[in-house]
Design a protein that fits this description.
- The complex is a heterodimer of chains A (211) and B (549).
- Chain A has 211 residues and is mainly α.
- Chain A is built from nine helices and no strands.
- Chain A folds into two domains: 41 residues, no CATH class; 124 residues, no CATH class.
- Helices cover 54% and strands 0% of the residues of chain A.
- With 549 residues, chain B is an alpha/beta fold.
- Chain B folds into two domains: 287 residues, FAD/NAD(P)-binding domain; 190 residues, 2-Layer Sandwich (Cholesterol Oxidase, domain 2).
- In chain B, 21% of the residues lie in helices and 16% in strands.
- Chain B is built from eleven helices and 16 strands.
- In chain B, strands 1, 2, 5, 6, 7, 8 and 16 form a seven-stranded mixed sheet that branches. In chain B, strands 4-10-11-12-9-15 form a six-stranded antiparallel sheet.
- In chain B, β7 and β8 form a beta hairpin.
- The model of chain B has no long low-confidence stretch (mean pLDDT 97).
- Classes of the chains: A mainly alpha (211), B alpha/beta (549).
């Protein structure tokens, strides 16, 4: 079953091409464990789907809905994944309840001010997340210089790209968006420009030498 | 293998404070010379599988670095200001694990050139700076640079750069495979008549000393290497030190004061163990290899009773002349994907602009490399004119694999008022007085960094970039190259250690790390720190044998 996982197979291929069988046999358990830490191997996609959060634990549902709406305007969905597809709001919820807990008071105050200013601006009792998209965008353009929006933007990017174990980047959709493949090791060629590299050409007067 | 342990009541020959680039080498060499050694490391000992591919953890959450929540520091630009903590990070960053910052370095291993050791007499004096000669020369250090390359493990191509200093041996391993960034950098630089060459890296390119070649995971700088291909002390010299049967590495042992007797000799170290209980380890001599931030802090926190100046500080130079290696570069986008998230971070460099050229009108020199950065860090900033949110921002995020960096790495001048000292109020989670940093860039360092930005733009333009984002040069607010704070010299009135790394003031107290450096070099100090450690250890072991400690 493990061998059927494409990431693990690629990883084994990369390692196998580089390393001798003896070393691999001796050290494979450690490296396999490291790969699993990174979510690159046996646990893979299915594990990420199963572990993706579906309820807010730090933010209230109403707050979560607002955060989700703002995040999805920072990185909109569409033909390619956006913040909502990558469950960025759940990353933010998790972050503010754990490793960024110190930011929670300022964040919730900022969110509250965001909501009340929005309500006053548009004379509505409806939340920002319920507004038409054009109105949402117009309001974000008015508040894009605020510390709260800066925090939202930073958290959205983190939630899009950080490992799925933190609650966002669901199914590595954030990595898919930016073109990063889910793998633990690589071998050349890495990109377009090193495919046909002819080799290092020494300069006149130099004599490169090796051991 | 059962690891050797010592009781705190035993008087060991040497305590080495710090297990990083210099501490690991110091421990191995002193133990191999027959001495009993205890290495004190602030942080934990991590196994290969403990190092994760987790950019959030290592870049944003102080995964293995000094955490501002528990190890806070303050910062200010001048002595007239009240220093304050910097939001969310520490000004001076280092790895707090067995292996120290060698665990998370990018592994760029550049030797200094002959000129680095004699710039004071060649180019000095410079107003507002203390540019002086080293008490040793390149020729004296060359055998130890070679030792680093062969004992620790460096890959590269000897003789490839017309600007390389002379060397006695080639690298033991061929260079790492080139990346797209390296190809483009080389293409652009050659068009300009420059001389890019394969980067010397402390990363295995082939099997070497029972460690495998790099698997090109792309996560070097900031990360530990779980396959042990990166030549970090924790995978190289530390196990070899332990294999002597005379060396104990004691993790989670936080040294906060050097013990002294009335005769002015070091007697051992006071430290907190993993349970934060205070302990004292006895030793005949102490070698501090704690890095350019923690070494001066330890000395300043070890002031003998009645002294406000700290230990081994009759010169007043402890903590002064802090240097970071300033530099400037550019980010560039190309037509096709480079996929810089794959592969070791740096594969091509150039040293055409290494020497300071008085014709430029300012002091400064350096090197350039082609390098990459992780997507999490990259995505936080956008070029001027690019939307910061919405569909335009999303399009920018989608271009991640099309970008690379051309980075300049350069000199920082030694300035007396740039320093590490002790904050008058702030203490860390152990109650130990915290670091206060005072730093303002020398004007020449800023001019040179801006000049480097212009050269990087030229190289990327010649390479065919479709978009170039010149780096912005601001005032330094911290660094990871922590240099010069206990400088070596022949004159006890102006330096902290002599040319053998013995403190001028305390006969059995030695210092060896980035703090020993007299000038900053050109941006990649670690190989020099390791060469100094091999050299210092040889002399310290000689002193021990001759009963001259």
């Amino acid at each position: 079953m493990e061998q059927s996982n494409p990431s693990r197979r690629q990883f084994l291929t990369a390692i196998g091409n580089l390393a001798s069988a003896g070393w691999l046999a001796m050290n494979w358990p450690q490296i396999a464990h490291a790969a699993e830490h990174a979510g690159h191997s046996a646990h893979g996609m299915d594990h990420a789907v199963a572990a993706a959060p579906t309820t807010f634990k730090t933010l209230s549902p109403a707050q979560g809905a607002e955060v989700d709406a703002i995040a999805n305007l920072i990185v909109p969905g569409g033909s390619t994944p956006g913040a909502r597809d990558a469950s960025v709001a759940y990353f933010i919820d998790n972050a503010l309840g754990s490793f960024f807990a110190a930011q929670l008071p300022a964040f919730t105050q900022g969110l509250s001010e965001f909501a009340s200013a929005y309500a006053a601006r548009y004379g509505t009792a409806q939340p920002f997340s319920a507004a038409p998209e054009a109105q949402q965008i117009a309001w974000l353009q008015e508040v894009e210089k605020t510390p709260f929006f800066s925090a939202m933007r930073r958290l959205t990017v983190l939630g899009l790209i950080a490992l799925p174990k933190y609650g966002g980047n669901r199914d590595y959709l954030g990595w898919q968006l930016i073109g990063v493949e889910d793998n633990h090791a690589w071998e050349p060629p890495f990109g377009y420009y090193d495919i046909d590299y002819p080799g290092f050409e020494p300069y006149p007067g130099t004599k490169p030498y090796t051991a | 293998m059962k690891r050797k342990t010592y009781k705190t009541s035993e008087t060991v020959d040497f305590i080495v404070v710090g297990s990083g680039s210099s501490g690991g080498i110091m421990a191995r060499e002193l133990a191999r010379a027959g001495n009993s050694v205890v290495v004190m490391e602030q942080g934990p000992r991590l196994a290969p599988e403990d190092f994760e591919h987790d950019e959030l953890k290592y870049r944003n959450l102080s995964g293995i670095t000094n955490n501002p929540a528990t190890n806070p520091q303050t910062f200010r630009n001048s002595e007239n200001e009240v220093a304050k903590p910097v939001s969310g990070r520490n000004p001076l960053t280092y790895a707090r694990v067995v292996g120290g910052s060698s665990s998370h370095f990018n592994a760029n291993f550049w030797r200094l050139h002959e000129i680095d050791f004699i710039e004071g007499s060649r180019l000095g004096p410079i107003e507002g700076a203390s540019l002086v000669d080293w008490p040793i020369t390149y020729a004296e250090l060359e055998p130890y640079y070679t030792m680093v390359e062969w004992e620790v493990g460096v890959s590269g191509l000897a003789g490839a750069s017309p600007f390389d200093p002379w060397r006695s041996k080639p690298y033991p391993m061929p260079p790492l495979p080139v990346k797209s960034s390296g190809v483009l950098f080389e293409r652009g630089a050659r068009k300009l008549g420059l001389h890019p060459f394969p980067a010397p890296m402390a990363i295995n390119s082939v099997f070497y000393k029972d460690r495998p070649p790099c698997v090109q995971c792309g996560l070097c700088g900031g990360f530990g290497c779980e396959v042990m291909a990166k030549s970090s002390s924790v995978w190289t010299v530390i196990p070899e030190a332990e294999a002597t049967g005379r060396c104990e590495v004691r993790p989670e042992s936080y040294v906060f004061r050097i013990g002294m007797n009335k005769a002015g000799r070091a007697t051992g170290v006071h430290y907190f163990d993993g349970d934060r209980n205070e302990q004292f380890q006895k030793a005949r001599a102490v070698v501090v290899c704690a890095n350019g931030a923690e070494t001066p802090r330890l000395l300043l926190n070890s002031a003998p009773d009645g002294s406000a100046d700290g230990l081994a500080n009759s010169s007043g130079a402890v903590g002064r002349y802090l240097m970071f290696n300033k530099g400037g570069g550019a980010q560039a986008r190309f037509e096709h994907p480079l996929n810089e998230y794959k592969g070791a971070n740096v594969t091509r460099i150039l040293h055409d602009f290494y020497d300071s050229d008085p014709k430029r009108g300012f002091y400064g020199g350096g090197g350039f490399d082609a390098r990459s950065g992780g997507p999490l860090t990259w995505g936080q900033n956008v070029p001027k004119g690019t939307p910061t949110w919405g569909p335009g921002f999303k399009e920018y995020l989608e271009s991640y694999t099309y970008w690379m960096n051309c980075s300049g790495h350069g000199t920082s001048l030694a300035v007396e008022s740039n320093r590490v000292d002790i904050d008058p109020e702030l203490k860390d989670a152990w109650g130990v007085p915290a670091i206060r940093v005072t730093h303002k860039d020398h004007p020449d360092d800023t001019k040179h960094a801006k000049w480097q930005v212009e050269r990087a733009v030229e190289i990327m333009d010649a390479a065919g970039a479709t978009q170039i984002v010149p780096g912005e040069i601001g005032e330094a607010t911290g660094g990871v190259h922590l240099l010069g704070t206990c400088r070596m010299g022949n004159d006890p009135a102006t330096s902290v250690i002599d040319k053998y790394h013995r403190t001028h003031d305390v006969r059995n107290l030695f210092l060896c790390d980035g703090s020993s450096m007299v000038t900053s070099g050109r941006g990649q100090p670690t190989q020099t720190i390791e060469a100094l450690a091999f050299r210092a250890a040889e002399h310290i072991a000689r002193f021990a044998r001759a009963n001259e400690i």
